[in-house]
């Protein structure tokens, strides 16, 4: 990565939270152009979030455990999606489409904000260039700040 965010944990959470923007836009009556911009913001935020997260995982997890760790991470990211799809139809029937969309935006926002209550998440950062040590692992000196 060319850009190494100083506070990677915050960047990951903010990028994930950006996925709430299109739902919030759809929950209100905004022009199509605003919805397009909101969706572009969410896509950009998610791309940055995923890139920073993948970089963090690759830096912190030993190579012999990286595949399994990424598998569990991906499972945790994808597992809730079908449940959300299953609940969205009945929820919109019960409380209305706009309320369902707004609730979805609030859930995504909460899921992005709650991890920031943990100091270690807020303090996550990517290692500086050239901090790999002889055994191939990365020095955590910057991560402790």
Number of helices: 7
Distance between the termini: 21 Å
Report the structural category.
mainly alpha
Rg measurement, Å: 18 Å
Say how many strands there are. Answer: 0
Bin the helical content.
Answer: 55-70%
Query: Order of helices and strands, N to C?
Result: HHHHHHH
Strand content: under 5%
List the helices and strands and how they pair.
Elements: H1 8-17, H2 20-27, H3 32-60, H4 63-78, H5 80-95, H6 97-113, H7 119-122
Structural write-up:
By secondary structure, the chain is mainly alpha-helical. It has 7 helices and no strands. It has helices at residues 8-17, 20-27, 32-60, 63-78, 80-95, 97-113, 119-122. Helix 1 (8-17) runs antiparallel to helix 6 and helix 2 (20-27) runs antiparallel to helix 6 (97-113). The longest helix has 29 residues, at 32-60. It is globular. The two termini are 21 Å apart. The relative contact order is 0.18. Residues 140-145 have low confidence and may be disordered.
């Amino acid at each position: 990565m060319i850009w190494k965010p100083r506070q990677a944990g915050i960047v990951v959470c903010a990028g994930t939270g950006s996925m709430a923007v299109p739902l919030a836009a759809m929950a209100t009556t905004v022009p199509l152009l605003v919805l397009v911009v909101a969706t572009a913001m969410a896509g950009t935020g998610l791309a940055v979030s995923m890139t920073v997260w993948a970089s963090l995982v690759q830096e912190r997890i030993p190579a012999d455990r990286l595949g399994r760790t990424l598998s569990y991470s991906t499972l945790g990211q994808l597992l809730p999606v079908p449940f959300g799809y299953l609940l969205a139809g009945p929820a919109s029937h019960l409380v209305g489409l706009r309320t369902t969309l707004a609730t979805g935006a609030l859930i995504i926002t909460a899921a992005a904000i709650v991890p920031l209550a943990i100091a270690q998440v807020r303090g996550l950062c990517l290692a500086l260039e050239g901090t790999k040590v002889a055994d191939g692992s990365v020095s955590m000196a910057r991560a402790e700040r």
